[in-house]
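Note to self: the last two entries modelled the partners one at a time, which told us nothing about the interface. This time every component goes in together.
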Amino acid sequence: DAGVIQSPRHEVTEMGQEVTLRCKPISGHNSLFWYRQTMMRGLELLIYFNNNVPIDDSGMPEDRFSAKMPNASFSTLKIQPSEPRDSAVYFCASNPSDRGFYGELFFGEGSRLTVL
Amino acid sequence: SQELEQSPQSLIVQEGKNLTINCTSSKTLYGLYWYKQKYGEGLIFLMMLQKGGEEKSHEKITAKLDEKKQQSSLHITASQPSHAGIYLCGALSGSGTYKYIFGTGTRLKVLA
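The predicted structure of the combined assembly is written out below.
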């Protein structure tokens, strides 16, 4: 079975440009999580969805960040405009449950973003 | 809000040595998860602990959750270079909406 698929794997862009990161969760999984990982701050939860509905976006750092999940098989994380401090590895993860007790999260390989 | 602190932050051991990584929560844990991350890759689930005093093992890795459910330890016996990576503990935080948060991570290097 295919795991969580993220694209692009690497993105290098210039400050001010729009960045869109994409995630395809495992089929049948009802929860989807977006994380950001940096050396300084570790792995931070940005937002998570249950059944395509955003449940908690308190981790989204600023209005420049937005996330959508238009259907059960696709989610995007958008940064507009991007800044050098947004440089990080962004992970998407999914889980079968939609009831709060999640157990194991299944992670994608991550999207490494560099903003110059 | 709940936070997870891990210690040590980094660890370098000689192959064959035993080691322990700790994860401490500021609040009672209702589920504690251990993950391993190889450099440049996503996280891989190792095991989950739920009950106070619970202990689980997988190959040479053993994880325990203390009776008060505020601290967990991950112990590796006879470490190998394949054990190298970043170990993270995770837990559900909050009530109502459950945030799946992670600890600060422990970077392990095993010297052959």
